Amino acid sequence: MAYYKTIDGKKYDGELIELAEKLTSGGGDGRISKEDAAQLLDAVKDGSSYTDIEKDTMSYIRDNFKWTEAADEWFRTEIRKWAASK
């Protein structure tokens, strides 16, 4: 896995992008579900902080991948709670 992925000249976390691509390909309706969102959250939390690159990457993923409404709401709530504790 690539550590960074450059898209339109901006550097993103390659592992998070690859995970989002994997979660939305194949089965299902191509949207990120709450279970998928939990996997993304776990991937972000693998470090001890929410880095600027991770923030930019999750913003990119939220803008460029389809999410279920429940998954989007759950992820935004959980990431805020976790980031506030760091």
Topology, pairings included?
Layout: E1 4-7, E2 10-13, H1 14-24, H2 34-44, H3 52-64, H4 69-84
Antiparallel strand pairs: 1-2
Provide the domain count. 1
Q: What is the helix/strand order? A: EEHHHH
- Number of DSSP-assigned strands: 2
N- to C-terminal distance: 27 Å
> Which runs of at least 5 residues are low in confidence (pLDDT < 50)?
none
State the share of residues found in helices, binned by percent: 55-70%
Enumerate how many helices there are, as a single number.
4
Net shape:
globular
Could you give the order of strands across the largest sheet? 1-2
Overall SS class: mainly alpha
What does the largest sheet look like? 2 strands, antiparallel
Q: What is the radius of gyration?
A: 12 Å
Description:
The protein has 86 residues and is mostly helical. 59% of the residues lie in helices and 9% in strands. It contains four helices and two strands, in the order ββαααα. The model has no long low-confidence stretch (mean pLDDT 93).
Summarize this structure briefly.
By secondary structure, the chain is mostly helical. The chain has 4 helices and 2 strands, in the order ββαααα.
Please describe the structure with a list of short key phrases separated by commas or semicolons.
mainly alpha, two-stranded antiparallel ribbon, single chain, about 60% helix, about 10% strand, about 90 residues, 2 strands
